[in-house]
Specification:
268 residues, alpha+beta, 2 domains, 9-stranded mixed β-sheet, 42% helix, 17% strand, globular
Length: 268
């Protein structure tokens, strides 16, 4: 029996068609207009566009309709009883308090990031690897120097994965901007320069520009503001475990903005 656990607050109403299937999740796009909804197993956790379910073989799900009070999956009508609030709530917290946790954040990221994360891009090796590392170095340097559009364009769509590493990195950087109180106009400049035809990347970037993110990312950001070093390490490892490298790439972007530098050796 399928059970609906939670629906992200940025899942829009309408009828959807399946776009992509991967382990523990099915991505849907609206029949009309833009947007994204992702039906995920409970272990994946909540997010802005996630529909979290329990007790279903996701490989068999073919249709999705979202209404104001319910979700209909393959004809099964499921009442929405819980909404995930995806926007970071950081009012009254001093972003300068993050500084004391940056060393623990960097150490935990380097310890938990998978091999294909941007923090481990090689400075040598094949011509492709050297070129990829060089583009990341250049794009990150431009962003951190304030050249927002040029830096974002250099990183957009760059790398591996369902959401390319560059897009995950930019989403993390946007969340760092939001957490640190960067003006909405600056975040919008990054988002506009990085916009993607990839529905997953576009949703991720749009949400991040507005301070909306998954529960693992929220947990890390709140730990950076008000947790202990152990909390930071635990939440960093949890985020880094998301996807093949997506969570770690996002964490690298978050760190880069908050620290004003990048956490991997080849960029120094």
């Amino acid at each position: 029996m399928i059970e609906l656990l939670e629906v992200g607050d940025r899942v829009r109403m309408g009828s959807y068609r399946a776009l992509a299937r991967f382990r523990g999740a099915v991505g849907f796009v609206p029949e009309a207009g833009a947007g994204l909804a992702v039906v995920v197993e409970e272990r994946k956790g909540a997010g802005p566009v996630q529909i979290v379910v329990r007790g279903s073989d996701l490989d068999g799900i073919a249709t999705l309709e979202v209404r104001a009070d319910r979700v209909i999956l393959d004809g099964a009508s499921l009442e929405i009883r819980r909404r995930y609030r995806s926007r970071l709530q950081l009012g009254g917290r001093d972003a300068r308090g993050i500084e004391r946790h940056l060393p623990a954040f960097r150490a935990a990221l380097l310890a938990s990031a998978p091999a294909r994360c941007v923090v481990f891009l090689p400075g040598s090796g094949s011509a492709f690897e050297r070129g990829l590392a060089g583009r990341f170095r250049a794009g990150a340097a431009r962003l951190l120097a304030g050249d927002l559009e040029s830096g974002a364009r250099a990183l957009a769509g760059l790398g591996f994965g369902l959401t390319p590493s560059g897009d995950d990195f930019l989403a993390g950087l946007l969340l760092g901007m939001y957490a640190a109180g960067a003006p909405a106009g600056q975040r919008r400049r990054v988002y506009d320069a990085a916009r993607s035809r990839n529905a997953f990347s576009e949703s991720l970037l749009e949400c991040a520009a507005e301070g909306c993110c998954s529960e693992p990312a929220q947990g890390l950001i709140h730990a950076l503001f008000a947790g202990t070093e152990a909390d930071v390490a635990r939440h960093t490892a949890r985020l880094a475990a998301v996807g093949a490298s997506s969570g770690a790439d996002l964490a690298a972007g978050l760190y880069s903005f908050l620290a004003g530098s990048v956490p991997w050796g080849v960029a120094s």
